[in-house]
Amino acid sequence: MSDDVERPLLRVRGLTRWYGPQVGCLDVGFDLWPGEVLGVVGESGSGKTTVLGCLSGRVVPTAGTVEFTTREGLGVDVLRLSEAERRRLARTDWGVVHQNPRDGLRMGVTAGANVGERLMALGARHYGAIREAALDWLGQVEIDTGRIDDLPETFSGGMQQRLQIARNLVTRPRLVFMDEPTGGLDVSVQARLLDLLRTLVAYLGLSAIVVTHDLAVTRLLAHRLLVMRRGQVVESGLTDQVLDDPQHPYTQLLVSSVLQP
Amino acid sequence: MSAYNFAFLDEQTKRMIRRAILKAVAIPGYQVPFGSREMPLSYGWGTGGVQVTASVIGPDDVLKVIDQGADDTTNAVSIRQFFVRTTGVRTTTQTDEASLIQTRHRIPETPLAADQIVVFQVPIPEPLRWLEPRETETRTMHALEEYGAMWVRLYEDITRHGHVETAYDYPVVVNGRYLMRPSPIPKFDNPKLDRCPALLLFGAGREKRIYAVPPHTTVRSLDFEDHPFTVEAWDRPCALCGASGVFLDEIIVDDKGGRMFVCSDTDYCARRRQACDAETP
Amino acid sequence: MSPAVTVEDLRKTFTLHTQGGQELSVLRGVSLSVEPGECVALADPSGSGKSTLLRCIYGNYRPQVGRVLVRHGEGVVDMVGAEPRAVLEVRRRSLGYVSQFLRVIPRVPALDVVAEPLRALGVTRQDAAARAAAVLARLRIPERLWALSPVTFSGGEQQRINVARGLVADHPILLLDEPTASLDADSRARVVELIVEARRRGTAMLGTFHDAEVRAAVSTRLATLHGVAA
Questions:
Q1: Given CB atoms, is C63 within the 8 Å cutoff of chain A?
Q2: Helices of type H across B101-242
Q3: Are A112 and B159 in contact (CB < 8 Å)?
Q4: What CATH number should be reported for the domain holding residue C195?
Q5: Which 3 state secondary structure label does DSSP give A46?
Q6: Of B143, B144, B156, Cβ closest to residue A109
Q7: What sign does the dihedral B241-B244-B245-B248 (CA atoms) show?
Q8: How far is CA A193 from CA A197, A221, B213, B260, in A?
Q9: Partners of C34 in the beta sheet?
Q10: CB-CB: which of A121, A126, A149 is closest to B159?
Q11: Considering the domain boundaries, does residue C189 fall inside one?
């Protein structure tokens, strides 16, 4: 994270999404810088998933702007992109890690094909090279490379999640959206996954937006936090500051409610 | 015969289908939806091909109909008779005599010429249907040229079998843009599609799609750089006419497993034999 | 030469919303400065807010009023109200912190825990591991423990990991919050050695030392939160 980068990677202003009379998210704004991980925390109904949906293009916001800086340094209005451009962006410069790995994988094709697909979609035409890249990435996410020809159905939940990560990272995206990346996994498996994410984010200089209800996950992964409640951001700042010195009553409640084993 | 319009279809229908064909020719490889009509043959027996042929056939055309390369199988005979009864046009079994060829599952061995039209019978037009059952999604994938999944399929084949398993209806890219299914012709015939001087039309009646490859359009079979596309080969020539480098059918000749390999293209084989007989005293 | 750290009129009040909005005013206008090569020891009794001050300087707590000016590279950063990424940058390069509690990340070996601040500075894996090993050796952490996660270590061992991690990157400014808590006499002495060496290298230090001997050994002067600097 150097200070000589002029513009943020993502600039969000006034992001709002109404579901009829119900507010999904209201007036959410922030800048995300290269190499920064932003945690979005809140309980159910906080709007954190809506925010993620609006940013990743799954949901069309009612109002607001989302500006993304491309590799060439140009600002792109994400909400006004054509479907083709947005999908291309999603396949190359962005990644999405779903809570349920089955949503982010092709369960019926081998691990190697899952990892290689983005490369093939971008024009990779050498089987051997694609396979090499897949082996490399399986290694990076600590999946036994001998399983490159196995179906994800035969993987454990933690392995499926790591495969999902590899599938996304193969095109070296600069921004990764994660929705409860450790949700549903056993605690020991969670630890391993978080460790991997932490390492990859630092090693690859990724920016990420991690939506979670789990404060421990944010302390480990996120540089900054947005605390959301009923669709609005009630507090934001440096992760350890928000967690150790919460200002807003809701944040204090959230932090004090976490059980310490 | 006077109870039916020329070529069975009414003129409005022919106009609608011709419009679809024009669109298809304008966008090589792109599947154009059309209002498929009830035809006097069941779905799966060539209703699409018959409708395309019926829309382009004229009284001066010379028609050839083949099924799996043969002029004399039941389906080829039925369809040929249908057109004779509804149009009265001249028919032929000789490829180079025909101006219009309707075919199921093969392209003739005799090279095609510029003034010929070949109509293919297509069961499933959508090359991505195996992956994506939703029509809305496959249309989007074509529109956005998102063909990564097709390559995944090839990758999987090579992973599982060491080579691409697909032997017929082998996917191709037309004019460098659209992914297309060439109908269940053997992959042996795929190279004949590439920059063919004839007009190639594809009709799927049940699925209600028409697509086309205009003359001299590039048609490339999908492959990897290190696993290039290859065609079938036989270790012996045709048992009847001695031709090699053509597609051979395997015929079981007795109850003891005896077999022979003969040309699938009956016209090609017959004429080679004729020429051979003419030479020998 | 300007001070490495300047605290100006720092005020910090905690409002406990979960307890009916009760207010705790901990820092009521603290001002002090620390020069390179100094080790300033806060002499207040326990519970008076010494840790709070250190955390405010580190950017971990947010004061209501005041400034905390930290020398960073060629310039100065006010940690109060600074952008999160600016705070992280200052912590990475200029400002170290030895806390009382080791927040243990499961699975990460002790050697990597200590090496991490160096890796964040771009030091190669090998060099970082070597330097971390050197510090761990000086603090008499047995080599057989280096590959294990500190989760299972004793309090004293965890504290030594804390100290090692805080000192390994040789930041120009160091905050020390009871660095010798839960250490036996031998370990205390070793920690003192390391601190004094750092001080002699020109590190600016501010800390709290419960043990009078330790305080006497490392500090160059005493100060209090709300009184006059000694």
A1: no
A2: 135-143, 148-161, 190-193
A3: yes
A4: 3.40.50.300
A5: coil
A6: B156
A7: positive
A8: 6, 11, 50, 61
A9: C5
A10: A149
A11: yes
Q: Using a CB–CB cutoff of 8 Å, tell me whether A132 touches chain B.
A: no
Count other Cβ atoms within 10 Å, centred on residue C152.
10
**At B112, is the pLDDT very low, low, confident or very high (cuts 50, 70, 90)?**
very high
Answer whether residue B280 shows pLDDT above 60: yes
More reliable by pLDDT, A85 or B28: B28
Alpha carbon separation from C117 to B236, C75, C102, C121, C128 (Å, rounded): 72, 22, 15, 7, 9
Position with higher pLDDT, B18 vs A184:
B18
How many contacts, defined by CB atoms under 8 Å, are there between A and C? 59
Contact of B38 with chain A, judged by CB distance below 8 Å, is answered with no
* CB-based contact B238:B269 (threshold 8 Å): yes
In a domain, C148, yes or no: yes
Q: Considering the domain boundaries, does residue C14 fall inside one?
A: no
Rounded Cα distance, B122 and B107, in Å: 13
**Contact residues on chain A for C16, CB-CB shorter than 8 A:** 252
Of A87, A126, A128, the CB nearest to B146: A87
- Residue C140, domain member (yes or no): yes
**Which residues form the domain of C100?**
36-63+94-221
Place of tokens 């699925």: B207
CB proximity A95 to B under 8 Å:
no
Q: List, for residues C27-54, the tens digit of each pLDDT value.
A: 999 999 999 999 999 999 888 899 999 9
* Contacting subunits of A (3+ beta carbon pairs below 8 A): B, C
Query: Which runs of consecutive H residues, i.e. helices, occur in B58-98?
Result: 74-87
**C86 touching A (Cβ < 8 Å):** yes
Count structural domains, chain C: 1
Residues near C210 by Cβ (< 8 Å), separated by ≥ 6? Answer: C46, C178, C180, C181
* Token pair of C81 as six digits: 């109200």
Return the partners of chain C (3 or more C-beta pairs < 8 Å): A
Range 174-193 of B in CB contact (< 8 A) with A: none
